[in-house]
């Protein structure tokens, strides 16, 4: 049997045309992330990941219209939220449940025909934004907000969240964040999605599984915890002692390190610049300064570089977004990548079934309960 690679480090588990990380360069279907971050609308990226090419005008228009149409949820979903919004349900937990619930209203949920699969993909991509935003409102006793036809995906997310038209600058920044988080080769949640559907299970099941994986603090859940850390460090003078203590206790510092990138995450520079701008605009530059000092110290002390989650935290915080919505926002964007990988898995499937190296006891004999 092959040797164990803990955490599957270095193991090639799939072929993909969706995205690649080669020598710390991230590309989506051959387009450099720098190019896309500076020029693309999130809807174009969705199309790119699903079709391996950018859409023409008519295709983009059609995708946008369908996304808008499907953003409206069945009223029973809002009522469903009302039932559990009274407790202390984390939005990622609510999202995991509600993605599963919306499958109940999709009459084609089990239909394997290819045209239906793509339609289901658009449906899920549209509804995931409405699930996150409406849960955020319903738990505060507010009414959900219907999407606005004049806004793009990024704009509609902010509009449905707050019930007020976002500014152009906010839409541009949020669009960029969505583009930067859309896909990332075979990360834990994407691998989870591919595993789930490799049994030929349905797309909703793949997304539910992926949401569950993303939720963890070593993956998408890190961004929320970055903000908790920043709120514990009250001033720039406390950074050294705070980080030294964590390092001494062998605690993980959230927002640092990466399995694949060892010389830097190509997405982080955009989020850092966005963080610098938006914290300055909102009078919270101190948060940015503390973040930079933490990043410098982590590099110097541990050789660890800030990943995508580190500066995204201050960007969303400065947009007045609640901290427990940071990971759900990541999920909204990453759904596009999960779906791309699910579609790819369906096209060339073999069930995922690795082996385990057994290290437990052997040669035991059943003992009657009174003898144990
Ligand atoms: N803080 C402190 N030490 C760390 C950190 C960190 N953030 N990251 C790695 N290390 C340490 C490890 O403990 C390990 O130390 P050791 O050799 O003494 O045991 C060493 O650095 C090497 O770690 P890796 O093997 O490179 O880490 P791995 O690939 O297993 O894990 C991960 C990568 C999960 C991202 C890790 O760096 C981590 O836990 N980071 C914090 C959580 C985080 O920010 N997650 C978001 C990742 S990006 C994303 O999902 C979008």
From TrEMBL:
PROSITE patterns: CITRATE_SYNTHASE. It comes from the Bacteria. GO terms for biological process: carbohydrate metabolic process; tricarboxylic acid cycle. Keywords: Acyltransferase, Transferase, Tricarboxylic acid cycle. Pathway: Carbohydrate metabolism; tricarboxylic acid cycle; isocitrate from oxaloacetate: step 1/2. It catalyses: oxaloacetate + acetyl-CoA + H2O = citrate + CoA + H(+). GO terms for molecular function: citrate synthase activity. Transmembrane segments: none annotated. One of its GO terms (cellular component) is cytosol. The active site is at residues 258, 309. Belongs to the citrate synthase family. PANTHER family: CITRATE SYNTHASE (PTHR11739), CITRATE SYNTHASE, PEROXISOMAL (PTHR11739:SF4). This is Citrate synthase. It comes from Staphylococcus caeli.
